[in-house]
């Protein structure tokens, strides 16, 4: 059963005196971007798989995932296209809770995230394991719409939103940081909005 009393945490950037990174404009809208449209996903066959440089691969179906501890993360969110939404409440499973029983090999330095539509994006392992990073199924008290990434997307509040891949189905631990889809098309390898790491 889903947790009706999730724990609550706050991203550090919420406490910045100026919460808009350089070049960003606050919006109440939610612009939708995807490179292949919205995939159709069946929860009966959905799975999230961890593989690569781990001692033992593991996967979860939807029912198993929803039995994990639930957390609400209060954060801002910034898109490389210059819009920012402030004060969002994401609901899902923290990466640290998901990986509680996963032994990551010491040679793993980065993660490649895989999605149902074929999208990939890379993250340094330190960014991926931050306290406020989660796999979310909802925002502001409602489940995502399919085009927003339902049933599951990664949320990495401190990096540009393209790093928060939608429709996630795989987490691959890798030995060195290498570009995912947008990174191989000229986007910055890390994507820190406070440093304007756009391209």
Question: Which helices and strands, and how do they pair?
Answer:
Elements: E1 7-10, E2 25-26, E3 47-52, E4 58-61, H1 62-65, E5 71-78, E6 83-94, H2 95-98, E7 110-115, E8 120-124, H3 125-128, E9 134-139, E10 142-143, E11 153-155, E12 168-174
Q: What is the count of β-strands? A: 12
Q: Enter the CATH topology name.
A: Sulfite Oxidase, Chain A, domain 2
Number of distinct helices: 3
The largest sheet is: 7 strands, mixed
The dominant shape is globular
Average the pLDDT over all residues and give the rounded result. 96
Low-confidence stretches: none
Q: Structurally, how many domains make up the residues?
A: 1
Helix content: under 10%
CATH superfamily: Oxidoreductase, molybdopterin-binding domain
CATH class: Alpha Beta
Rg estimate, integer Å = 16 Å
Structural commentary:
With 199 residues, the chain is mainly β. It has one domain: Sulfite Oxidase, Chain A, domain 2 (Alpha-Beta Complex), CATH 3.90.420. The chain has 3 helices and 12 strands. Strands 1, 2, 5, 6, 9, 10 and 11 form a 7-stranded mixed sheet that branches. The protein is globular and about 40 Å long. The N and C termini lie far apart (42 Å). The model has no long low-confidence stretch (mean pLDDT 96).
Summarize the structure.
By secondary structure, the chain is mainly beta. It has helices at 62-65, 95-98, 125-128, and strands at residues 7-10, 25-26, 47-52, 58-61, 71-78, 83-94, 110-115, 120-124, 134-139, 142-143, 153-155, 168-174. Helix content is 6%, strand content 33%.
How would you describe this structure in keywords?
single chain; 199 residues; mainly beta; Sulfite Oxidase, Chain A, domain 2; seven-stranded mixed beta sheet; five-stranded mixed beta sheet; 12 strands
């Amino acid at each position: 059963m889903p947790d009706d009393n999730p724990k609550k945490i706050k991203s550090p950037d919420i406490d910045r005196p100026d919460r808009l990174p350089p070049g960003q404009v606050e919006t109440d809208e939610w612009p939708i971007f995807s490179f292949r449209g919205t995939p159709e996903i069946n929860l009966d066959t959905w799975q999230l798989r961890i593989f690569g440089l781990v001692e033992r691969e593991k996967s979860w179906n939807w029912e198993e995932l929803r039995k994990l501890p639930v957390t609400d993360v209060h954060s801002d969110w910034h898109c490389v296209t210059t819009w920012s939404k402030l004060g969002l409440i994401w609901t899902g499973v923290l990466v640290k809770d998901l990986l509680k029983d996963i032994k990551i090999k010491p040679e793993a330095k980065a993660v490649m995230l895989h999605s149902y539509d074929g999208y990939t994006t890379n993250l340094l392992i330190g960014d991926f394991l931050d306290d406020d990073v989660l796999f979310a199924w909802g925002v502001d008290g409602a489940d995502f719409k399919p085009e927003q990434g339902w049933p599951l997307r990664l949320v990495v509040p401190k990096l540009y939103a393209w790093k928060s891949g939608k429709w996630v189905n795989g987490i691959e631990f890798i030995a060195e940081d290498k570009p995912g889809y947008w990174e191989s098309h000229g986007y910055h390898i890390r994507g820190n909005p406070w440093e304007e790491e756009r391209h």
